[in-house]
Amino acid sequence: MTDGPAETPAQQPYLHDLQTTVRAPVFGLSGTGGALSGRGVTGVFADDRRVLSVSDLTLSGARLTPIATELDGADTTHSVLVARGLGEDGADPAVWIERRRVLVSEDRGDGLQTLVRETIEIRSASRRSVQTTLTVTLGCDLAEISVVKSGHSPGLLPAEAVDGGLRWTGPGSQSPDVVLATALPAPADVDSENGRLRWPVDLAPGEVARFAIDVSVTPTGTSVVLGTDGASVIGDLHVDSGDIRVGRFVERSMADLRGLELRDPTAPEDHFLGAGAPWFLTLFGRDSLIAARMLLPLGTELAAGTLRTLARRQGTKTDPETAEQPGKILHEIRRAPSGHDAFGGSDRPLLLPSTYYGTVDATPLWIMLLHDAWRWGMPADEVEKLLDPLGAALAWMRDHGMDDAGFLSYVDESGHGLANQGWKDSHDSIQFVDGRIATAPLALSEVQGYAYEAAMSGAALLDAFGRPGADEWRAWATQLAARFRARFWISDADGPFPAVALDRDGKPVDTVASNMGHLLGTGILNREESALVAARLGSASMSSGYGLRTMATSAGGYSPLSYHGGSVWTHDTAVAVQGLARAAAEGVPGAAEAAGTLIDGLLEAAAGFEYRMPELYAGSPARPGGRPTPYPASCRPQAWAAAASVAVVSALVGMRPDAPADIVAFEPLPGDAWDALTVRGFRVGTDALDMRVDAGDVRILDA
Q1: Omega before 171 cis (within 30°)?
Q2: What is the pLDDT of residue 39?
Q3: Residue 9, exposed/middle/buried by CB under 10 A (0-12, 13-18, 19+)?
Q4: Which one of 206, 216, 263, 414 has the fewest CB atoms closer than 10 angstroms to its CB?
């Protein structure tokens, strides 16, 4: 027995106290004062590798104390550090540093691309001249993102002195990665052994000394995504409301969405959203599709780019190692295979190929987005070009996705892929009410709703474009709904509800979970069933006061800090809000009230997170005057969390377009909590629609 603490195995780094900047595919995570410590996950990353892992400042004769760090847009951090003990005559600070780190994308013309620009301004308000030495310590390890996520670090690369800065060269004899840090003015001293740049500083009263450091890298040549070079296809949205939280949520989210925007290297005209920073800044089928669907009110360009990018990579063969199947839409793409140690009690190390198809829901979600983009005004010729991928996606549901019981289900056949392949993809996300983990193959409830809507949506598209098979798919959907009603609906002490899943034995997994919220609006529920779901979603066991819990507090496995077992996910709440708003428009009792409760909870959480909503946060109950508790490893920003702001506004307005029929209907959410709502930037096709909602009435504003 030892007296000291046991050796702790490597763990996924926490993110909650870090500032994240993003200009996809580059992102940075910094600590207080903009510091990059070389520990944990801090650093600047590009193409899934860390190109800058240490950036630290010192002033001789002073102790630097950070007093402010804030984001400026999505790509810039601004920090203020006081130089304690330097030039002071009393308690007031006399010398301070203003530090900005901006993510950029500039071609140097020498084979390198500048990705980071750091500026350092030393300001003096002292009554006397101040002499000091500025030292900037830099380091680079070129660690792969999967290694960093696993809690490991390969150690810093040796630096070499170059004119005006430092250079690091990665391993490999052929075309190794190169990272170059160049400073202006040139440092007086370059200490390559310790990665230090030094400048003498002599400040007269009121003077400012300015320094800049650019960090440039060699492009990998194996990038699977491209940045946008500042050109976004996401439309502008401006919202004014009596509730100031709505507009602030939208404003912050729009900056983050553009920061997460990417392009397809094989067709750079096609844009999509990377799922989130730091772990998921690439194409993710499910995430990119759901976020694009939420953003349809701002135009169809992002949806069209997402659809085409995924269609180019649609499955063509059966491969258990990658989970590819003909017609299937992928889960994620990476520059290289990614390996992760076992986490959270799972005994399954994860090894995912660079192109991975382990998702049961991306394929129906692709179909649903194509249909909805068509309704929102995606040009008919663009839709028509995707009808063959549509046919392949529909066929995948019928020929590959269905189990013997007639439900879309999944099981990992590789032994090293994702154990769960719905949006709740952690190993313990699907639990019985007593806490036992359900065993795959699993048929998730929400996926059956997606499949129903996808079949009906596919049928509508086939009819509209003169393709055969529409009646077959409507019949298929009707039969699926009947099976779902017979097998998924169960009861507890509070009455009937849809089970979260059926396990490998066909037994309903009897936990009350947020998955049921995704069923609303798919068409698989009737009016009475929708009312039962609405009542569950609005109950105290599911609604935390900050949004919708992933699992009811009554479940044996509930924990407010469980990834999928009691936390609140921003997008999950927004999806439920959209379904409830649709149900309210159809007169479902209790739906409007539940939607209002969840919207207010989301906005309260948004205020607590300074309107940059995280991927998820704790499901602890809201307290008067309190703030939501972060989930410490949550990504922030996350595409579908930011897109949730638009989903909330869309639910409040209740805009229901049918562009092919030249019809736009409005069914605003009942209630007066968000009256005096002015929305500028919604679009149907090429037509902009600005509107004002008051007392349930929608008035179109003049341009």
Answers
A1: no
A2: 87
A3: exposed
A4: 206
Average pLDDT over residues 442-468: 98
- Under a CB-based contact definition with an 8 Å cutoff, are residues 126 and 82 in contact? no
pLDDT at 220: 77
Beta strands in 267-363 (DSSP E): 267-273, 332-333, 338-340, 350-352, 355-356
CB 268 within 8 A of CB 226: yes
Q: How many helices (H) and strands (E) does the chain have?
A: 13, 36
Least confident interval from 343-357, 501-515, 673-687: 343-357
First to last CA, the chain: 76
| Alpha carbon of residue 467 to chain centroid | 36
Of 685, 673, 614, 630, whose CA–CA distance to 20 is shortest? Answer: 614
Neighbours of 86 (CB within 10 A): 23
State the amino acid at position 436 in one-letter form: R
**CA 528 distance to own-chain centroid:** 34
Helix (H) or strand (E) holding 90: none
DSSP 123: E
Record the tokens describing residue 349, joined without a space.
Answer: 């190390």
Please choose, from the candidates 339, 343, 342, the residue with its C-alpha nearest in 3D space to the C-alpha of residue 354.
Answer: 339
Which residues are 569's β-sheet partners?
A: 616
Highest mean pLDDT among 143-152, 238-247, 669-678, 694-703: 238-247
Rounded CA-CA distance 275/288 in Å is: 6
pLDDT-derived band at 620 (thresholds 50, 70, 90) equals: very high
CB 334 within 8 A of CB 282: yes
Q: Nearest 5°: phi and psi at 574?
A: -65, -40
Element (H, E) at 598: helix 591-608
Strand-pair partners of 282: none
Beta-carbon contacts of 482 under 8 Å, excluding residues fewer than 6 positions away, are none
Structure-token match 């104390």, residue found: 65
Reference 388, options 283, 461, 299; nearest CA is 461
Structure tokens at 691: 């509107």
Q: How many CB atoms lie within 10 A of CB 214?
A: 21
Contact 647, 574 (CB under 8 A): yes
Q: What is the pTM of this model?
A: 0.96
What angle (nearest 5°) sits at the alpha carbon of residue 641, between those of residues 352 and 394? 60
**DSSP 8-state symbol, 27:** E
Residue located via tokens 């936390």: 567
Q: What are phi and psi of 240, to 5 degrees?
A: -115, 140
Long-range CB contacts (within 8 A, 24+) of 431-435: 431/509, 431/511, 431/551, 431/555, 431/556, 431/557, 431/565, 432/509, 432/510, 432/511, 432/556, 433/492, 433/510, 433/511, 433/512, 433/554, 433/555, 433/556, 434/556, 435/555, 435/556, 435/557
Antiparallel, parallel or unpaired: β 663-666 and 655-658: antiparallel
Taking the C-alpha atoms of residue 304 and residue 368, their distance in angstroms, rounded to an integer, is 12
Length of the chain: 703
* Spatial contact of 38 and 44, defined as CB atoms under 8 Å apart: no
CA atoms within 13 A on the CB side of 200: 3
Give Cα separations from 243 to 239, 607, 675 (angstroms): 10, 11, 9
| DSSP assigned state of 360 | S
**H or E stretch at 57:** strand 54-59
CA 645, CA 667: separation in Å to the nearest integer? 18
Token pair, residue 123, equals: 């300001």
The DSSP 8-state label assigned to residue 692 in this structure reads E
